[in-house]
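User: Hey, my collaborator sent me this sequence without any context and asked if I could get a structure. I don't really work with proteins. Can you help?
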Amino acid sequence: MRNSLFFRCKCTWLWLALLVCSTTPSAFAENVESTLTLKKALASTLAQNPQLYQYRLTAEALSAQRQTSALRPALALELEMENFAGSGANEGFDAAETTLALSSVIELGGKRQARMRYADARLNQAEWEQQAATLDTLGKVTEVYIEGLATQANLRLAEESLALSQSILKTVKARSARGATAEAEVMRAQAALVRAEIRLAALQEQLERQKVLLARFWGETTPGFQSITGNLFDFGPTQNFDQLYTRVQSSPALQVLASEARIRDAEVTLARASGRSDLSWRAGIKRFEETGDSAFTAGISIPLFSGKRRSGDVKAALANRNAVDYAQQDLLLVLHARLFEAWSLRKQSIAAANLTQNVAIPALEKALKLTNDGFDNGRYRYLDLIAAQEELLASKQALIDAATTALISQALIEQLTGEALNP
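Assistant: No problem. I've predicted the 3D structure and written it out in structure-token form, which is a compact way to encode the shape of the chain:
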């Protein structure tokens, strides 16, 4: 496969392939550290992902088929003997006639050029399919990576929730010992502590599952890292939608259909060329055993009415070609809708994350402190303290969710456009 097209995409993901070309797969396995970065995950995927490796074999197969398509009609050597082993004068081989001849076909209508054009179009499509598959695979890697970052943030939040539950239980027990709080509230505080421990354990297992999901992208079943690094709240600038949509119109997904159109064009040309009759020729030398003389022989054969027989193939090829145009229009509409949804969702999520982080959380942290102090002094009930704690934790959870949605939407935009928003 001609790799020059593969590196034309300016996406940050794809330039990592240059690193892959100079690094063996074993080197990645040896250099895996306890902490995984997104760059390492993408590079390892490009180097070792089984799905992407299949395209190399596909390219080899298509290249071999192109070599076959470029061959001219083969020559055939014929040996023919007549008038032997019969009766009367033709008994034995005395009256035999032996002919040694070469035969072949002269292709008309540019069939060989049409076959080669069709093979080149299929190679071109395979290149774009490889780019599209690479973007799709790396997009999935990025999405799982972001979800892993979100799980790690949720783990920290769960640890904070556990610490708060422990602190509240300690306070409630102290108040209960003084007779200022009912025993039922101690039981509720203990149940809240258990729920916090269960959530923390569940998130720890969830992170382990996500680590396995990540490792499978580069062909491993056991993760060679303990944690992943990255800033869940680094969103980068927001770009204009029209600029992003312009990039989508030259994305690999559309180029796959454009190459499909070239394949269909080549099929139309090939069908029309196949409608032209080929000339079969034969030339040789004939020996007459009875007289010992020799003579040259020659012949030519032209099929009749072959054009009418292939007219249906031409119509079918034209119909398939026209269908590609409508498929391109439909795909462009689908990509426009997906891009706008991701762009709008990213913008909305970033705004929500900024407001939550800068306004809601500071206010709720102050409210929790005041409620906790008032609870110690008997001015607030246990329910008031729990409500303040849950509101703070819910806002922090909403911040993580908004940041995760923003980054996953950003990854989808990069996958659709083939370029990184925040290099």
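In plain terms: Confidence is low (pLDDT under 50) at residues 1-32. You can pass these tokens on to your collaborator as they are.
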